Fold:
Amino acid sequence: MMKTSVKLLTLVALFICVHSAAGLQCRSCGGSSCSSQTSQICSSGQSQCVSRTYAGSYNYGYYNYTYNYTYKGCASASDCTAAGSEFVSYNYGPNTYAVNTTCCDTDNCNNQNQPIVAPPVGSLQCYSCDPSSYECTANVTCNTQEVCAQAVVDQYNSSRPFYGCVSENLCNNPSLSRRYFGFSTSVSCCNTSHCNVPDLGLQCSTCTDSSCSSQRLVTCSKLAPFCYTDAYAGSYDYGSYNYSGIRKGCASSSVCTAAGSEFDSYDHGSRSYLRNKTCCDTDDCNTPNPTLPPVGSLQCYSCDPYSYECTANVTCNTQEVCGQAVVDQYNPSRPFYGCFSENWCNNTNLSRRYFGFSTSVSCCNTSHCNVPDLGLQCLTCTDSSCSSQRSVTCSKLAPFCYTDAYAGSYDYGSSSYITIRKGCASSSVCTAAGSEFDSYDYGYSSYIRNTTCCDTDDCNAPNPTFRRLQCMSGSGYYQYSVTCPFQTTACFSRSYTGSYDYGDYINTYSYTYKGCASASDCTAAGSEFVSYNYGPNTYAVNTTCCDTDNCNNQNQSIVAPPVGSLQCYSCDPSSYECTANVTCNTQEVCGQAVEQQQRQEQSWRQNLHCS
Structure:
């Protein structure tokens, strides 16, 4: 009895050791419902299972966003101080946030979701300051588990104010408040309405829509000593797409260093951009909407750093001059010619900060004074199929014209596409004049691409063709029309006939196969006949290739040439038997070879036989 007890205790201890070595097992998932859960083995140092649910809302000025998310998994001591539940929340007016965390320490104990049951709204009123916009108000209402609070947030690139409602467990708890919200100071709390009085500063206007057609007045935190207006506009694809917007609000010293305006603009034909930022430091000083400068009379050369195209027809606004620079944000360096706001001229810091210019912007103020180094004339497409083209002048930094044509199909050929692009090309795109071809076809999907580079004016005018040939496919009586892959160059019809002597009996055969052919199957349109004969066995193939739709609909019967008088030695590659009595037809001669692979139809032609 004593020995049995000792063995039982030993087994229990062994089970505990094995279980401990394996580690804690926790349910794992993530998502709004956490419906798909798996079990994971926790690593060393993860002694708890956690189930954490987040819920909240954000106001981004022009729209509101709400969310609800659940996470489950293994947790370390920093995530769970002990088994049990923890609820934290904050509310500063436009944004709300709540987290419900439950920790436990047995296998898969976190299998249940922990929904957030919001406490009822109370009567406590607090000041609120949004750490994103620096706007402060006095109308946020706390729930029954929250108190008024203030802190500083350093999650952003400058310290920002936080005033609003927080759950009481965040008060004077730096580790908890930093873990959830990135507060750089302890959260200072009080529990009477409007007791968390912020240091208030300016009154500033803010926009209620992207065009700032209507505005509202807000009170700023003293950490934002400026009001700002940021107006921007631009276009791309030669004016096909235009955009503009105005933003206003409170600004910290990282956004506005002093009261005043900063204007930046450029226009290189295919793209334009201008921005007017104004900072001021008196109440409601940013109410007026800015106006953009009118178009002037100065004409400049423009070179597009994306396409290398150069023209002489870009017109500057009244605050711009002609300029040129080199952009090295790309590989290789690219030309930039066009109109620039004057503050960019010879200002390397400003031009590099915004656009990565590797040189200062060199400016001049008479029409077409920024003459570029011009090179080839190349064709470029005006639509994806290149049904119409226009000739452009390239920068000398692009010494080639290119055509990049690609086509493909998917869903077993039921859908297909063709796209052609043309233009000026740098030496990183074209290393030399010539063509490069790539393709694949694996049934469900096919793809073909042909890139051609050339170095004379308008040499890229011809459009490549990607014709999808229709061919008859099948064998015998069962034939049907198919759409071939893009790389197909011909239709083929191949007829086989022959005989095999198996000793006890002779087997003769004849069949035809049809389909799509690549360049390796058909070198050119026409017919090809091959045959061999080494006594017991004969073989003949007649292949016909053609390059029009369904041109292989007729069967190609093999008409054997008449028997001639030429006699050859014959050695059977299967039995090694040699005789001297094989007679060739009128298109065959004597031949000999060494077989490399036995019992393969194609290799039999390589033995001693008439061929």
Observations:
- Residues 2-22 form the longest helix (21 residues).
